[in-house]
Amino acid sequence: MALRIVSAFVVASVSMAAAGQEPPTTSPVEQQRGNQPTLSTDPSARDQRLPPPSDASSYTLRIKSFREYRLAEGKIVATEAHFEYRGYDVRAKEVHGDLETNVFQLRGEVDVVGQSETVKAEYMEIDFQNRTFKLQSGTADVKPQRLEGFITTDIYLRAESATGREGLLEARIAAATTCSYDRPHYEIETQELIVIPDRRLTFKNMRLRVLGRTVFGLPRLDIPLDRSTREYLPEVGQSIDDGYYLRFKFPLAIRQNLFIFRTDLTTKKGVALGGDYLYATPESKGEVRAIAGFEDGFNTIRYSASAKHRQRFSFGEFDGNVESRSFRFFGGPTSKLTDIRLAFLPNFLGTNGTSRLGLNHLINETGDFRSTQSNFSLSDYRRWDSRHTTSLNLNLSEVRASVGGTTISTRKVLDVRFQDSLAMPRFSAQLDFNRAIPIGTNLSFLGGIDRAPELSFRTDKTRLLGPQANFPNFSALLSVGNFIDNAQSLQVARLFFDLRTTKTGVPINGFGVEYDAGLKQGLYGDNTAQFTPSANIRTTYQHERAFSINLRYNYTRQHGFTPLFFDRGGRSNVVSFDALAHPAQGLKIGGQTGYDINREREGQIAWQSPAIRLEYEPTDRFRFRALANYNAFAQRWGSVRLDTMYRQGDFTFAASANYDAGSGRWGSVNLFADALRWGRLSASVLLQWNGFTRQFDSRQFSFAYDMHCTEAILQILEDNTGFSPGRQIAFFIRIKGLPFDSAFGTGRLGQPVGGGTGPSY
């Protein structure tokens, strides 16, 4: 079993900060304003702040108080003023404003409150129309909505100077924290701070101060906001494939882009170094990733590289993706894989449709074996008017395989797919042409069924008789076409007719009937024919949702013969019954079974899936469900499934189990408990027991200790099935205000690990 230890080296000394302190009623930025009420950090108080105006052009200036005030030619000069304008509440000793440009200069005890920020400064310039600002010697409380929700709590800033606009905040000689105490537990002091809401936080020449003491400093620290935080947790451990290993990533911003340095140090596979470069401009976006290392005493190079780029031009959009890697698996031969995918979407072919050109090329080399796959595609969709559309898809593909330079297999095919649809008042017509055309000598050509061509007509009750006609709903299809079955080297004409009638909807009280019935008829050019009647009928009785009874009948049977395999179907003749009663509030009791008439005629056991069920959900906080299935073939009970759930505040408990009556074992028992609390400590547990292997498929534990603005987290995650089974132990201290993606509740490949026993019922 592999043991993996993951550590996030953040300062552990923060843990001593929270003891014995109570949270303040106001943040460091939101102080008392004379006789005005305090702006509390409580969310309910924040909701009362001024919302952004619904119509900024008509939002007028409202003066609430002033000592001196003068307005001339759209210019405002005031002292000791208090006013509201364009969604902001503002106070300042001196105000100079221009109502035409909406630019205001504020000096002396400036105090600005908006929906997404609270700012105090000695000097501030605000452009109310463009919602930008500049300040000197100020503090700010920035709300999560200002950063587009990429943080979960307020960020408190103080800076000698700062500028802000939509999508960017920059500050110099600044300090930032998410701690709301007047003397915060921690602060990040920096010469320059850059906040890009949907991408990252950047600190230049930063130092971390905990309880007033400098703990460490870095020339630069970048915190991505748009990527999983788990990507940057270092991994130290041991596994069968790698031996002892150390892996970590370090993000570094380059202007507006991001570079991620990566290391992979292993005792069995050697050393690998690489990086990821992610970039974006107004017209393009892309990423380049590469990592390379040596194996077998520096005799073999293993690498993995990829590049993605998307570019917008005035005449269209280009999208490219290239991947290449070289690797060995368990000492086998070296494998090289290269995958190239290019696409171009022109926009100069008119606005009534879309077109796409694509090129895919895949090369796979392992030892002397080499295979290549190439595809060139062209697609076009056009809406000529409200009734007429066309669709064209051309794909030229070539597949080659060779050993030692000798070709052993080749296939080159042009696939043509065309569709022309026309909607008319009484019916719609559609022409389809699908053809796989082999090119040259194909050593291994195997195609499907081609339509060359097929013409179809469709109509229904609404088109022919109108929606109000007193006639059952129906739809009809008539088609005629020529079909080529490449597998059987068969070419045959087909005349096909499909008539269906449906009725949906049943009353809440009393009897009701739903049905879907039809007849399919095919006539073929080789003097064969087939017709298939079908019926799906549901009869129900309901009494004010107190109980319901359903009787269903499903019938399908083919008569005759068809040479085309996609026209062939099975046969069914099944009656099924289910009932559900609500004898008390939140209580449901029901059962179901089915009877296969075809199996009974063949002398086999005809009963299908007898089952009984029970559900009890008196409130949305508690639920219990049970389902028992009877195995009619073995003439005994098959399985019993149970699950329950209870919620109380943040606490959740869930359990599920599956009992296999045939083996007399509990096949699976799963337990989940979330947010178990003891004071500042909370815990979550997830257990999955496999009764057949008599071991836990998964055991996961997560413990968190609340330290006000931070929390210490210990996780023990063990998976004994699937990809790379083993145990992972992680300990880290995180800032609660920053986004966090925990590995708890997921498997080795990131898949969710739940507490259920199978599909819901």
Q: Note the overall shape.
A: globular
Which bin fits the share of residues in helices? under 10%
Oligomer classification: single chain
Spans of at least 5 consecutive residues with low confidence? 1-49, 757-761
Q: In percent terms, what proportion of residues is strand?
A: over 45%
Largest sheet: 31 strands, mixed, barrel
Q: Got a strand count?
A: 44
Category from helices, strands and their pairing: mainly beta
Give the radius of gyration. Answer: 35 Å
Number of helices: 3
* Mean pLDDT rating: 83
Distance between the termini: 36 Å
Summarize the structure.
With 761 residues, this protein is an all-beta fold.
Q: Your description of this structure?
A:
With 761 residues, this protein is an all-beta fold. It contains three helices and 44 strands. The strands form two sheets. The chain has a 31-stranded mixed beta barrel. Strands 2, 3, 4, 5, 6, 7, 8, 9, 10, 11, 12 and 13 form a twelve-stranded antiparallel sheet that branches. β10 and β11 form a beta hairpin. The radius of gyration is 35 Å and the shape is globular. The two termini are 36 Å apart.
